Amino acid sequence: MAAVTADQTAQAGADRPEGADEALEAVFDAAVAAEERIEPRDWMPDAYRASLVRQMAQHAHSEIIGMQPEANWITRAPSLRRKAILMAKVQDEAGHGLYLYSAAETLGTGREELLDKLHAGRQRYSSIFNYPTLTWADVGAIGWLVDGAAITNQVPLCRCSYGPYARAMVRICKEESFHQRQGYELLLALSRGTPAQHEMAQDAVNRWWWPSLMMFGPPDDASAHSAQSMTWKIKRHSNDELRQRFVDICVPQAESLGLTLPDPDLRWNEERGQHDFGAIDWQEFHEVLKGNGPCNEQRLTQRRRAHEEGAWVRDAAVAYAQKHTAKPGQAAPAHAAPAHAAPRATAGNGEATA
Ligand code: BYC
Predict the structure, then answer these.
(1) 352: CA distance to ligand 1 center in Å?
(2) Separation of CA 329 and ligand 1 centre (Å)
(3) What is the dihedral of CA 347, 87, 157, 113, to 10 degrees?
């Protein structure tokens, strides 16, 4: 961006003349309007930085919490091929979290701080991951619908005004596209299988359809951040626009799958050139956001435990790095404390904790 860097701003320091912030903001606004990328060392309004951290943190948290529902099926995948594919997918989600936490770090917010906020319930992750994966078909429904919704939402984020977020999204979207096809292919195999398999696929779609529509966030007239985020070109489309786009993409795909979307009001509207669809249960969405979804407690408990149990890995990585940067004759750092052993648990919602 041909704007003013943070260093230049700092140099000007306390001596900045009155109106300097307005001038900086005007340069920032002009850069955004001209479709230039804002980079970490560029000056940016505090509210822009805070909004990016909020959205990117939520996104990163969604990726790592999103590993849990599918990981629940790794040990029970029906073939070695399916198991290998699922393991690779879940590992990709961890990688997406990594890119996004790294991108958030460029805004001056460390990973530890963001994880602490997630574990304390002070930052959100996507509502979709608070639903249980009850059958193998749920792995297909997540790939087709959840990754499909994620792609619809995230492809425009590749053009986000903040450079590191936009660049992370390019790679993430390529991988999500594989994930979506994996889910579609899995559901197709089940749909064309025995009547029991077909029924299992239909049941999974029935349970995941409406929560997938909620992934796009509240309706536009109730979306607190959309207008500002779109002015800043963080978001390129409103929640309702993307939701509509997703519905229009899914209808013909459901037909090819031989599955029905569970919405009696779903029909083509010739005049609009789009599908009409039924009312979303926003009460359910708000309950899930408040922590009252079927798996909220289980997901956070498991995440906190994974973090505790992984402490020795982080300590070992730091010790290894220090050892290799230590000057000859310097003592190696003390060994990390052993991890706490935590008992395995079973959730009360029909889903075993992975
Ligand atoms: N769930 O003003 P709004 C994946 C919150 S993971 C929970 O419209 P915004 C995958 C929102 O944060 C994909 N909370 O907000 C991984 C805000 O609360 P705060 C995850 C939601 O930010 C593993 C309030 O409601 N994708 O692909 O303009 C396996 C008002 O909303 C939700 C992303 O995170 C929700 N569904 O728009 C498989 C994409 N919706 O912060 C797949 C990046 C809204 O004021 N994020 N809220 O407390 C975004 O694009 C936007 O943040 C949203 C919301 C469209 C989600």
Answers:
(1) 26
(2) 51
(3) 60
